[in-house]
Each structure stands twice: as structure tokens, then as C-alpha cells.
Automatic annotation (TrEMBL):
The keyword Hydrolase applies. Residues 51-152 form the DUF402 domain. It holds the Pfam family DUF402. Keywords: Hydrolase. This is DUF402 domain-containing protein. The keyword Hydrolase applies. InterPro entries: DUF402, FomD-like_sf, Ntdp-like.
Length: 167
């Protein structure tokens, strides 16, 4: 897969579209881009903490974000301000649109959490996904989203997810 590659060290914009909710936009720095796998680093974008139930994102947290141009998900490694690993938050998304200024991705409401010790793998927000109506509006996208969540869970439980991110 080819297309626009973003230069490491460059600041870009990330725009996360979430259905009818306002988009989340924030700056990130390009760590690497091989044309398929794009790695960005960003600070937690909100001035206040957000508790996701399984993890609390706080000001000072640093996210190393992994996007693939051929996968229906992204993975965010979450570390606190001191560098301690909290875990990996995985979003099921449509394929990202990567352009010269950054990327836009559509969150499909399915998420997965993998704890820092690898012992906890949780599927999240399946109720939000069902309520979103995606299965009725776009059955093919809903099917792809469900398969992406299944793939993420298999990768997380097998240890392949963390190996994939470090290699």
C-alpha cells in the first residue's frame, strides 16, 4: 500500500470522528511511517482527566498511537507523565484517511483494553456499537468492525499485539 508518508519529527493533526458527537482534534508528532503503519505520539488532549472505567487518562499522559492504512483499528499505548505504562487502548475504526496535514479516522464505538501486565483483556462499548445503528445503516462496515474487535482480542490474548507494536 502506498500513498502519502508523513515525515518523522513533523507535527500533524489527528481528527477522531465519533458519529453524531463532536470530533476530537489534537496535535501529534510523527514517530514513524512506512506507508502502511503510521506511529504518532501525542499528549492527552483534554485539560481534565477522563475515566474510561478500566483506565483513567489524565493530563500529562503520553499516547503512542499506531494506525494502519489496511486495518480497521488503531492501538494507543498509554503511559503516565513519569513514563509508567498503563496499558493499550484499542479503537475499532474505519481505515484512516492520511493527508499532508495528518489523519482523520472514524471511531466505530467498539474498543478493547489490554492492561500493562497483559493479564486483563476487556471488550468495551459493545452496547454503544449496537445502539449506533451501524449494522442497519452499513452492514458491511458493521461486520468489518466486529471482525476487527475479534482480531484485536485474539492478538491481545496471545501476546502478539504487544510484540507487533514493539517490532
Amino acid at each position: 500500500m502506498t500513498g502519502i508518508r508523513l515525515r518523522p519529527g513533523r507535527e500533524v493533526s489527528v481528527r477522531l470522528v465519533k458519529g453524531e458527537r463532536p470530533a476530537v482534534c489534537y496535535p501529534a508528532t510523527v514517530v514513524a511511517d512506512d506507508g502502511v503503519h503510521l506511529v504518532l505520539r501525542a499528549a492527552w488532549a483534554k485539560p481534565t482527566a477522563t475515566d474510561f472505567g478500566v483506565v483513567r487518562f489524565e493530563p500529562g499522559d503520553v499516547l503512542t498511537e499506531h494506525y494502519w492504512r489496511d486495518r480497521w483499528y488503531s492501538v494507543k499505548e498509554v503511559r503516565d507523565a513519569a513514563g509508567t505504562l498503563k496499558g493499550w487502548y484499542c479503537d475499532v475504526t474505519r481505515l484512516p484517511a492520511v493527508g499532508p496535514e495528518g489523519l482523520v479516522t472514524e471511531d466505530l464505538d467498539l474498543d478493547l483494553w489490554l492492561s500493562a501486565d497483559g493479564g486483563t483483556v476487556l471488550r468495551l462499548d459493545e452496547d454503544e456499537f449496537a445502539a449506533s445503528g451501524l449494522a442497519e445503516r452499513d452492514p458491511m462496515a458493521a461486520s468489518r468492525a466486529e471482525r476487527a474487535l475479534d482480531e484485536l482480542e485474539i492478538l491481545a490474548r496471545s501476546g502478539e499485539l504487544t510484540a507487533m507494536l514493539s517490532g
